[in-house]
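Lab manual, section 2.4: Encoding a predicted structure.

Procedure: take the sequence of the chain (332 residues), apply the prediction step described in section 2.3, and record the output as structure tokens. A sample record is shown.
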Amino acid sequence: MSKLEQLKIELNKLIDPSLNKTFEEVGSILSIKVDEEDVIDLEVQLKNRRKDETNIKLEIARLAKIKFDYPGIRIIFTDSNYKLDDEKSITYLGIISGKGGVGKSSVTANLAVALKRLGYKVGVIDTDVYGSSIPSIFNLPIEPLDTSEDDELIPARTLDDIQVISPEFFMPLDQPLMWRGPMLGKLITHFFNNVLWDEDTQIVLIDLPPGTGDIQLDVQTFVPDAKMLLVTTPHPNASHVALKAGLGAYEIGHKIIGVVENMSYYYNEANQKNEYLFGQGGGEITASKLQSELLIQIPINQPVDTSSYIYSLNDMNGKLYFALAKKVLEKL
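Recorded output:
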């Protein structure tokens, strides 16, 4: 048996601390080889790379350099998708739109509240970095987030016990975020890899920026199985661009579970008729072209409590969001 094979056997006895299982049990070693200078190239996957990488690197180096007398070792760490039998997984749902101003963030927030009313533990990740509004909709104070002992971000919490992560918490109040792509990528990485969600969190909604771009691609990398809910208004111009966003989501591997037509009409109490201020049919056309379903039409309406942007179940829109939440759960 070669020295490299003996080293691999010893490496397979190491424990992934976050799984409490050996490397061999969970297939942690993805590749191992030695170059012409007798330096080891090793690729290892860990369940909690950010937390365990430093200690595991030291253990590997001790084995390779001290016990087996290799002059050097290069290690690449990746994230393990191994799941324990009793491990609870979070379901991610992205909320997307083609254009800004169609009410995507309002839909995200009110859908989160509706899911909470149905008994689900819900979180929201606000990735709309240049137009972040989720904290404002929930009336959350703009202040730095606390961190855990392991330097994980502790989400802000709404009065409805919804957990929220947003770029707003990383910037001074009313200060614009003017970052280029690489910086945004680092921020989004923290949002998906460095957040201490409650252990019983079941659903996390992702409020994505309008259109297609870097963040959509980043989100696909972190949660490739996430499904998408598309928001548009009935206006032809909005639905035309929404279609592009939906097709873009399809192209990178996401499933569209349905379309929400927001600001569909205004109910005129004077004549008891619906007034279609932004036209008609945009949601239906978009859903049809995407071979999806128009899940609901949300009218223009103010909450009964005018100090809030969240509809109660006493509001017509609150009842509609409650119905939307039930349909969404059927699709997830």
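Check your result against the sample. Residues 49-67 form the longest helix (19 residues).
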